[in-house]
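User
New here, help please:
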Amino acid sequence: MDPLAVAERLPRIGHAHAKDVAFNAEPLALHGLLDHRWTATDAGAPWTFATVGRGHDASWWAAFIAAVAARGVETISIEHEDPTQRPEQGVIGAARVLADAIAAAPLGPDPA
């Protein structure tokens, strides 16, 4: 599913998690998206969990933040499952991408 398409069609969202995915072209072409040998820690799999920003750039995240904010989300939790980075690196990188995305997000006026 496309998170942006889904978020834009929901009337309300209770909470959101920031996690990303990266597609690896060659293994994806050879084995497909639903490769039965997939594991979360295999950086050479058709797809892997990725640090926020490694799969989608800050402009994509800005659109996501705007979409979920418009549906009631005030806080986004960072999830780190990237097998290619230590959590300390991944969370810091994700926070940077999300900070840039929040600054660029077309958010409405603060209701407070």
About this structure: The chain is about 40% helix and 10% strand. Residues 3-21+49-104 form one domain. The longest helix spans residues 87-104.
